Amino acid sequence: MEKYTFTLGGYIKFKKQAVEFERKLKILQSQTAETAEIGGDLWHDNFSYEQLQIQIRAMDTRLAESQKILNNARIIFSPESYEYLKQIENRLNNSQNQEPQLFRSKLQEIRGISEKAIISNLPEFPERVAIGCKVCIGIEEEEQVWTIVGYGEAEPESGKIAYNAPLSKAIIGAEVGDVRRVNIGGKNKKIEVFEISQDKEVLQWGLSELEEFMGSEKPL
């Protein structure tokens, strides 16, 4: 089964998106009975009902795909951010003032994140390109700087590219001075790695959202 690697911030963002899909699906499903009564007694005579069913199937597919990805997720942590996660878990275990159902929900969420954790011991200047690295590369004659991020976290306008993008796949594992080739826009181009450094912000993204969740009465 394919695994999907996230940073903590990316995982939380994706999880919230899945929760939103579930909320929208429930709203659509709640409209079924009412819509079926409009425009005719038979469902196949009711255009609004047919359109609603199309929307329900589409949303159900999106939710199922999101849940599959979450079930097969891995979350990259720096040692410091993972230690912080364990501190939150311990704090939650020692809490006596939370409503039982909310307490169980939070503890289950935190433990679920912890079980998916992968510790990334990236030094300030890593030897090889990996998720959480900022990489200066040369593509033919053009110098570019990219940060390698997790699944669904790409922001090209901010210089962030997902680890499963073709360019990332070409340079992950490469060392400074290595030359790789990648197909970009239908053209085979040479890539040289000039510099590799750690992007601390990427590996710490999501800790504030986790702290906020701990003080909230809502699910993650």
TrEMBL record:
One of its GO terms (biological process) is DNA-templated transcription elongation. One of its GO terms (molecular function) is DNA binding. Pfam families: GreA_GreB. Keywords: Coiled coil, Elongation factor, Protein biosynthesis. Gene3D superfamilies: Transcription elongation factor, GreA/GreB, C-terminal domain. This is Transcription elongation factor greA. Residues 127-197 form the Transcription elongation factor GreA/GreB C-terminal domain. Residues 11-69 form a coiled coil. InterPro entries: GreA/GreB_C_sf, Tscrpt_elong_fac_GreA/B_C, Tscrpt_elong_fac_GreA/B_fam.
